[in-house]
Amino acid sequence: MRKRAGNVLHIAFTYMGTIVGAGFATGQEILQFFTKFGYWGTFTIAIATGLFIWLGTKMMLVASEIRAKSYEDLNIALFGPRFGRLISHFMLVVLLGVTAVMLAGAGTIFYEHWNLPYQVGLLITIAGSFLLLRKGMKAILTVNAIVVPVMLLFTVLVIIDTFQTPGSSKFITLTTDHSIWAAWASPFLYTAFNLSLAQAVLVPLGAEIRDKKTIVAGSWAGGIGIGFMLMAGHFALSVYMPGIQQFAIPMGGIARELGYYVQFIYIFLIFSEIFTTLIADIYGLTLQLEERLKWSREMLTLGILALCYLASQIGFGPLLSTLYPLFGLISLGWLYLMVRRKVSYRHS
Question: Whole-structure pTM over 0.85, yes or no?
Fold first, then answer.
């Protein structure tokens, strides 16, 4: 029983840590996909939470059943050899782009909040990623088991502080000039984008867990946790609208209201969340490329980090605002196929 509870928490924390990346932890994703749509954001977050629970569970159960080695195995099982490989090729490009965004986000934190050069931040993050990734999935699970619970605690602190701020009920009354159709499309775009990326970690994680009840419980806990943090971020960001939109890292701006020391810890947590998603994405990429190129995992990791370093020279803001909506739109096709596909859970 204790071992199952531990595995449930590992799944939940890894799921949450994989989704809570640069755009989420900094507040940019919440702002762009939910808060800018005013009070509609509360309803659309509820839809996104339901999708995370349902499809995250489905993805890991299938991976466990077929004992997938990488997300390409899952896509082939779901969509057939031809379309499965095409989707995997696309995901390879998307993961490289998003990993560059994560690295750029880490560099931005060093520059904006710790008064260190952007390039120094990039190089420190690259060195830490390489050292941790040598330990494989175990390192990803351990980092998430530490970072996610602390992030949840600070999320509660942000909620408590927001309750004491004038205008704390603004998330109920906040209006928007954006189209209502765009508002209701946003949870599907957001979930499609994040779940298609999360394959890189959730597939090998699901393949390692043989007990279906453990996977279901972990996915539910993780999905609810993601919904809770989305709602907390939306709740806090709404109070400071529209001015908060000028910040590259909106949650960092809110953290300033909590005092210097709390702000420092919170910024470090944002960096940690970016870092966990960065190493998770690189891990998924190395598994995928290892099957194709037959290179050593260390060489692949160094190659991916070098490519992402070059791409990160573009900057965090331009990368996020350009790549995320584009990838989200294309990922809707993957979400549609994932929803409609009937899966037979037969033992191989």
Answer: no
